Amino acid sequence: MKPELLRWALLTLVMCPLLLFAREPLVLDRTSGPYLLNSHISIFKDSKGSLTIREIAGAAGQQLFERNSIRMADSDMYSSVHWIKAELINPDSKDKELILEVGYPFYDQVELYLFDANGQGLSRKVNANYPVYKRELSSRHFLFRLDIPARQYVTAYLRLKTKGFMPMPIRLWQPEQLLSKLNLEQYIYGLFYGVLALLITYNFLVLVNSWDKIYLYYIASMACLVAIIMSIDGFAFEFIWRYYPSLSDKSLPFFLFAGVIGFSLLGRRFLGTRRNTPIIDYVLIAIMSIAATGAFLSLLLPYDIMVPFGMGIAFVCAVTSLITGAVSLNRAVFSVQYYLMSWMLLVLGIFYFVLQEMGFIPSNFYTEYSAYIGASFGGMIMSLGIADRMRMLERENLLAQSVMETRQKFSNTFEKFVPKQFISRKKAHDFEEISLGNFDSGNITILFSDVRAFTELSELMTPDEVFRFLNSYLSRMEPPIQKHGGFVDKFIGDAIMALFELDSERKSAHSAILAAIDMQRALVLYNKHRRKVSYPPIQTGIGIHSGEVMIGTVGSAERMDFTAIGNAVNISSRLEGLTKYYGARIIVSRDTMDLLEDRDIFKHRILDWLRVKGKKEPVEIYEILENDPVKVQEAKIKAETYIAHGLSYRHQKDFESAVKWFKKGALMFPKDQALKFHYQTCARLLSKKVARNWDGAIDMDQK
Asked: Is the Cβ–Cβ distance between 480 and 522 less than 8 Å?
């Protein structure tokens, strides 16, 4: 027998007792690697965590191990201590230098025990809280150097302790293979995190310019996703928490909950769930409330409690987001296809990664990095979706703005024919909401203005000159009305009907008189202009009365008009017509004067007690003197004594005494047209027989 065969026979005899317990030992040949130990290990769950390596390595301890299931090797979910046993054989004539990788960064403690054929062993222990830079090999995973002597076997025991999940991705690497893997990972992870960083940066720049919350929610969501992935693959432990490893247990659950909040806010904003799917919106709000509570508790409660809780709420959030996207797809929400595709890529990427880790599908480049691929493309598609959504919204806004501008033009044109105060009073948001027959009542002050002798004046002008005159005159009369809070109800040829409805009836009456005074002042300036161009000056009369009116639409379905109608409107019009008889610029009824806080704020005098045409109730009228020259004002105020005495005698039916007072006043103030009118009126009453119940008010049959 050859010496080589003899040595192998002796080695086999020595190993036979151990091979009864450690099935399928891993043969470290020259070409293989890396070595995945899943099918070559035995597992024992030490529920109490009380056994020592001597007890485990003894004959009784060997009976405790069970052969590992390939499918569960990478995803066994426990929360205790596990012992892993593997037999390694080096058939080469040279020693092998290998690196054992425990590819999961969240173990609380990893202990390695090696025994050679003679039972001699050594141990190495790494705690999770032991900083990366102080480990035997600086890495986010747990790495141990293994030196396997030539033509020898060793038994390796791993004691894995964790409070959370217990995945077991255990591999043996040749140093050059591990270096190649790390170099490849540098490119892959660099590309992955670079893409996400670029997406976050781009959307941040857009956020600075637009300040739309959707970009803020996207940035927050992607930042949390990056933090979650960095925590899971160990980069956060290696680089971010490098000097504070205890924080790694808090980071993963915290960012899980924060990510749920971010993605829920993004979904609500992207899909407009408050408007389009209110029920789902309430669900998302509930999810965010739970996640906010979880984020706070994750800083206080243990990792093994909060991570399953966080993963559960993240799963609910993902399912809800997919359902929301599907529902919104049927409702034609802007860019929902991007949102749905993004979530599908992210969920499918994670799903295939989990299947690969559990051994259900082969491990290759695409399945091993499917979560990263899904997250990258999902993030890009979500960003494209946000950009497309904003583009569609901008287009819709431009279209809506164009429609609004067109409607505003129509509305502005409409307001030139119908005062906007009418529309506001009817609580209509648009002229299209106006319908025939809508009306209500209110106490307002009405102002009527008219050009005296306009008929005679217009006969001297061509039609073109008449229109130019009216436009020139009316354009000067409207500003004083608007200045004091009134608005023009309508232009009736040369006449103006204006309404005053302010916060109170007192303010309305006061503002109407102020507007009338300013209209007369504007007329003075207009007459100066007319004299310069050789046109004769004009005079106007203004009548003001306060009372209840009906305001609304009148007409037919084909042609309607907004207006105020009622007894108060008719009286105001009649008062304006009386100005030419009394030689007054402004006549105001007692109803309006009584509304003033102080009558003496305006210089005035009493004019008469009469019934206007078509009315049964008498009206007491006053003349506003503010626009008369000072000397004329003084004369009219003195003449008021004669008017008052004459009216008193007239009321008593003592027409002779009344005539005496009016005549005496007319002689003293020959330019006072009101005294002349009273004298003539009472002189006619002397020759008439009045009724016994006559109230002293004359009947004005003229307009």
From this structure: yes
